[in-house]
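Provenance and format

Records in this collection were gathered into a single text stream. Each protein contributes a sequence line and a token line. The two records reproduced below are adjacent in the stream.
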Amino acid sequence: MRRQVALLWGGVAALLIAFSPWASQFAGGLWGCTFKSLTGIACPTCGTTRAALALARFDVVTAMTQYPLPTVGWIVFLGGGLTAAAMTLMGRTPPEIPSRLPGWARAAVVAALLVNWVYAIATGV
């Protein structure tokens, strides 16, 4: 089962990279943030689409300045998927992803989300 997930993850990552030149053509059909339009304050995910579109242009610097946490998440997702698929194709078993994070890791994730949200509000994303 782990091998199938690794190949699926790698396939999705490869497709996202392969279709990245056309990502901006689909962006016009997306709607704006409802939370921000109602409150005037950026939501915790405001800027994620713009960061993903910058990554699709392979502009990592712009993506990091627009919204750092989702940018890092996308890079980890893509790199992890390609690595897991490559390991599987080479006959190695990819490492198992833990089903439950320890308390310190969960606290770190919450802190990172809050810091990133404050960054979005402070920069006017």
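Adjacent record:
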Amino acid sequence: MDHGSVVIPVDETPFSDEELTALALAAEPITALADDAVAWGGGDLRTPSLLPNWYMPSPSYQLRGRWTRAIVITLIVGFLVIDAFGLCITSGFLSFA
């Protein structure tokens, strides 16, 4: 049973440098923004930063209990001790580096 197919023509030739330059020069630059312009991505309530929210959103996390913090600190200290003794655990087995 044939449900039909859509054929989308694809132009195999990419733009040349001259065409891209002509398109860039023909574009109208935005010289001024309106006074009531809103940043793209909305006016969310987050701490102010140098980067916009759509580029790098602020991290979201929940405070967890003391057990989670203790486990994470134990893992980090364990890896630091392994490195301090010149051992390697990259493959999952403890060996000399």
